[in-house]
Amino acid sequence: MKFDITKHIGKFYLCTLLLLTTVGCSDFLDESDPSNLTPDSFYTTAKHAESAIAAVYADARFVGDGAGIFSSNWQLLEAVTGTSTTQTAQNSDLNNLYSLSYDANTLHIRNWWRGVYKLIANTNLVLENVPGIEMDEAQKNKVLGEARFFRAWGYFYAVRLWGDVPLITLPQSATSEDFNPTRSPQSAVYDQIVADLLAAEGAGLSWTDDSGRVSQSAVKSLLAKVYLTMAGSPLNETARYADAASKAKEVIDNAGPIDLFDTYGEVHDETLGNMVEHIFSLQYNDEVAGNPMGNMFPNFQPVTYRGPSGTGSTVPEIEFYNSYEAGDLRAVDREGWFYSSYYTNGSGELFDLGAPYIFKHFNVIANGTFGVPGTAKDNLNMPIIRFAEVLLIYAEASNEATGPNQDAVDALTRIRDRAQLTTPALGAFTQASLREAVWKERWHELSYEQITWFDMVRLRKVLNSETGTFDDFVGHVNLSSDQALQEKHLLFPLPEQEMINNPNLTPQNPGYN
């Protein structure tokens, strides 16, 4: 089923161009003159509703789009954490992210702004137009629920990246009164995010969905994540810890087919996409768009069917790799999240890579394994929410809401058991020690999934890989660049070109003028 939806997502995405161009798409439209479609004439059938929401799914893949030579958009959220470094220096924008010297002209930042707001614009079109279509009500509600999920997901990125941002909930045109919108307070943006997710909860979505569509469990998991973020900085709505714990517990207690995989290799097995641990992922299929994590390959080493290749533009910072506990299966070569040896050209003799590289997104089927050549088709999805994160959300939020408790320790223990690590009993924890134990587990379990940076911002804390303790955000030195984080780094700058296009976006975020 995964292949079907990803193929259709790509094809539906082309159909959305009908809203902007004069090109027809006869596979999905029945009008006698498809070259004259408008939003009013497009949103008339159930197929149009499905085409429109499929375009939203396609738009969400902007996260994996390119950002210049040897770089991808997702690297915005990895380079700044200090948990990775680079073996190349050919992309100046990426170099500036690693060195914390990025500014309002950095390509990755501009791409994220445009990607997020394009996604939001298409969800607004769905939410405005699909209610008027005569179609099966259950199907309609599901489409609207998916659109609300994605609008919330887009705004959740925007508010964490830039703080106060334009809050647009209706389709825009050049004649719209708020065509050049001002920035709304973060609290208002979060209110909209929560409202959208609560509405999506009641949309009749299935509990899980092996095809990759948004599910009820994905909505609840994202809502738990939003509540956890609201409880931290800058909102500091500490009552939200209880809300986060409650929502995460709904997923844990009613998991059904949701669980942790038995092995870490299953996390990046393309045949298990959208199953078990994968609550929500961005869908990739090589016929439409292949997995976008190739910049994690080592620089010019023969670990795949391509032979000597790869950019090495995101590789582990060695001190972070060394911060994993002794015996942690996640740090074992080709067992967990890293590999320091692989098979020549993907399927030949084992050779030493000379350093650890990121194995978490390595597709063995596409790239090859011993004696089995790769298929050269990387259909591995990009994980956005795994069950492991839900367990850690619960452990952290429950501890903050009520102090150490057995359920919180049990959730933490499930993560550590898979890593073959021992977890202290409940009585050994204080609230402070359990708090830092969960934080550290988040750094190690969720690394290289574009999550760590947002933990740093909401906690105002950063794992010190050398001491194993947590530094204050401001003043922490990223070992990958030997540069210290500053107050201004809590937000990214608004893209300069966007501020030129819309003067109402001023003022620029502090420290970037």
From TrEMBL:
The keyword NADP does not apply. It holds the Pfam family SusD_RagB. CDD domains: SusD. Residues 344-512 form the RagB/SusD domain. Its main location: membrane. InterPro entries: SusD-like_N, SusD_RagB_dom, TPR-like_helical_dom_sf. It is found in: Cell outer membrane. Residues 27-228 form the SusD-like N-terminal domain. GO terms for cellular component: cell outer membrane. Keywords: Cell outer membrane, Membrane, Signal. Belongs to the SusD family. This is Putative outer membrane starch-binding protein.
